[in-house]
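Researcher: Here's the sequence for the chain we discussed earlier.
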Amino acid sequence: MSPQARVYNAAGAYELCKKVRDRAFTMAMRRSFQSLGSHSQMSLPILLGGTTRMTIGSHVYLGPDCWLLTHRPDGRLEIGEGTAIAGNCVLSAALDIRIGRGVLFARNVYIADHRHGFSKPGVPILDQGIEDLRPVVVEDGAWLGQNVVLLPGVTVGQGAVVGANSVIRKDVPPRTVVVGSPGRVVRQLPTD
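Model: Thanks. This is the structure I predict for it:
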């Protein structure tokens, strides 16, 4: 066997082992979620908190090093079917985060429906709790580029594109391209 064939076989074995491991983990975790659709997969390592308040549709992919958290008993996180979330993404729900169907996340996307309090002088921010709780919605077919940050109260419209490194404080209209910090519309996409 040639050296190239050995490398190919080793790489294939490695990928197969990762798939088996991740599939076994996903199946083991299935009952901890409010619901977890068929053919969805979580890639290890992953941080999960409050899974009984999470609804994940079918054919959803969650990449390695993602954090999915619901912080309070009334916090909800919903991810629609066919959504693909690359690695190192954070979805932090104290109230309500809803991700539609067929949404694409690049790496390092951060979404929170709250922020830490910081108005009390002399009190560590860690001890000030969270505030500004407002739902976040990403509608069907949207694409969030690498390092995107969505702040509380934002809705990203259907089929919208949010460019890499953008910080979104206001709603993104459907079928638009938004870039920058703060995000601004730079292009309207075709609707047909």
